[in-house]
Amino acid sequence: MSQLYTSQPTVNRLLTTFSSLFPSATRRTRHLLAWLLIAQLALESAPSVRCLFRQFLSKQTDASLNSYYRALGNGLVTDASIRQALALQALAIVPEALRQEPIRLSVDDTSIAKWGKHFDGVGILYDHAKHDGKSYFNGHAFVSLTMSVPVLHETAGKQQIRYIAVPIGYVMSNGEASKLTLACQLLDEVMPILEKRQVILLFDSWYAKRELLAHALSYPNLNVTCNARHDTAMFELPDSTAGRRGRPPKYGKRLMLDEIANDLTNYLCRMDNYFVAHRLVKTRIFGDHTVHAYVTLSKSGSYRLFFSTIDPMALHMSIAWQENKGLRNTSSKHMAIYPLKLYKLRWGIETNYYEQKMFWELGSYKVRTKTAIEHLLNLTNSGHALMKILPYEDERLNTYRDKSPQELRHALSQQIHKEVFFATLVSKAQSSINSSTLLKALQALAWGDEQAA
User: Fold this and answer.
1) What share of the chain is helix, strand, coil (3-state, %, to 5)?
2) Phi, psi at 234, each rounded to 5°
3) I need a labelling partner for 195 at 20 to 30 A (CA). Which of 9, 105, 280, 314 fits?
């Protein structure tokens, strides 16, 4: 590696931060992967490893293109360790005053279309979001995890609680394991880190199946709030069998969705132009757990079903300090639907997908092996995640707390190019006849520039 630029403050700080994501790798591999991330920031894109090398890395480092390919395929760099390192960094920005606030996890999957047939794990996938008659395409599917952590944010002179949705990472779904199994794997990676926190898991109706629910609820500090299918079997709570012989029943009378929705005594309030009905029920997918069932009714007459295992009164949330108006303006009378309001925070994972695909070129990878693809996606994800974490970790970047991650990336890109320019100019000036005069002029320019200084 070239030592010329590691003496520059911004590049040096980024190298240290990015290298910490790969604790199990060798020093050289850590630096290669960290430089890949710096190149993505410098170019504000990630078109391909070859493009990053030609336009930036070949000029700033001594490593060859094959060295970066080998680093991406390095088996010692586990994606699990990258995801755990990101989770630890996300938890580190939570202030001491908010240590009791719940942590939110969101699980979902996304797909990336690929034209080539020679990628590992590529296959024909269905995209339910397409409405052009071409819902099937060739590509990869990935399961991902997002962690939303609370931070203090000042609004109009008041300290309020804001949740930052930090994307933790991706696992490729290639037919060897189901998406539910991969979701369980992601949970197992981060839950040991969160064993002393109250954790709420959010996901949509596709993941509301017994395999994931049973695994999630095996953690004593983890609760679930999820959307569910309309035809999910629900039952009343069983009647007491005190004084009667025989085994007590597990379920009461079968309940239908419209039966809950049409019973006006179950309606609590209106939320976002929806009427919300609430009832305690039993379901087969949750096993022996009693769950809160929420049915929302829109003006058009359509129903949506949600389940939650959270007791609203057991939530460790400072409700009055929430920045989100919907969470803050909840009276004690309507506390029963508070877990349903928390489900809206799941949208952070969809926002991350949009930003990474639109602005970080998540699907532009050209590497073919499964290991290299997962490494590259998790690297790109790490860059995006750290743009959300750094403004709360580094006070010098606190002005970017109210801005998008892309704005911080742009600012860092400008700073990286500026430091590279000054370092290159100084190295050229050392062989110049008038080097002392040129160096003095450069020093004056650097001192006059706040960022360069």
Assistant:
1) 45, 20, 35
2) -125, 150
3) 280
